[in-house]
Amino acid sequence: MDEFELYLRAHTHLDNGDMDQIRSLAIPKTLRRNEFLLHEGEICRYKIFISKGLLRTFGTAADGSEHILQFAPEHSWTLDVESYDRQQPARYNIAAIENSEVLLWPKADFDKLLATIPSLQSFAQQLISRNIYNSGRRILTALSATPEEKYQEFIHSSPDLLARLPLHMIAAYLGISIKTLTRIRQAQLRR
Hints:
The chain has about 190 residues and is of the alpha+beta class. It has a domain at about 1-115: Jelly Rolls (Sandwich). The chain has helices at about 1-10, 15-25, 80-85, 105-115, 120-145, 145-155, 165-175, 180-190, and strands spanning about 25-30, 35-40, 45-50, 55-60, 65-75, 75-80, 95, 100-105. Strands 1-8-3-6 form a four-stranded antiparallel β-sheet. The chain is globular and about 55 Å long. The protein starts with a helix and ends with a helix.
């Protein structure tokens, strides 16, 4: 819980009482590598904070291939937004890429926290705005950038993830084949 408290104190102005209330409703969970936190078709019932490790949110196509929407490293939040907000079956899976430690808040509890702690509500709105901005940027890149530009954008925006992710996951995130990604990386090494 210490990592989470440091994170929140760095981004909000919560007093000790608010922090205690938030911590008291958190459910710690340890995930092993490749363990699922949410399967497609289940209801996303928790707001998820990653204290340690790395998770991915992804969909699976009819042919079994993965399409990765998001990587969530430590000190980030994740969930299937539509499933969580509407309490309907999830369209995506959430799974650990590395052994991970997360904190979970049931929706009713987190909604209560947002209603009673104004600075947490304000911080949540900032996160939502940032996610909307990042999603728009990612969509524009996916639609208009070349594979090389997509990879360069990934290197620029997430340099710390490069060594932690297998190539097939980076390719699935960028929407390119592993063969294309390998070619791009080899061309960069020759430069």
